[in-house]
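User: I'm preparing a small set of examples for a lab meeting where we compare how different chains pack in three dimensions. I only have the primary sequence for this one, and I'd like the structure in token form so I can line it up with the others. Please keep the answer compact; I'll paste it straight into my notes.
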Amino acid sequence: MSSLRMKRREERRVYLVKKYSKKRKLLLNIIRNPKNSLLEKEKAQSVLQKLPKDSSPCRISNRCKITGKGKGVYRLVGLCRNMFRHHAMNGDIPGIRKASW
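Assistant: Understood. Below is the structure token output for the 101-residue chain.
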């Protein structure tokens, strides 16, 4: 099982992404706009680099809602493979049943 610390870290990252999303989007638009001068782009780049690392959306990873594991997580249900199997066998996940042919 993943530690509570890992779950909290992920929650913090989600919070920071939401907090800085507007500012980050504005700065990226300045950098990508070909009409802006090189000086404006450099200023925007330096401001963007000073933002917290965890405010970048690519730092967020999928984690299991029950155990907090970061690997083997199914996006559809938000569970890791072990918990998915456990809950599928118990019939807790609607529409999922064991395959037999």
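A couple of notes for your slides: The CA atoms of residues 50 and 91 lie 48 Å apart. The mean pLDDT is 91.

User: Perfect, thanks.
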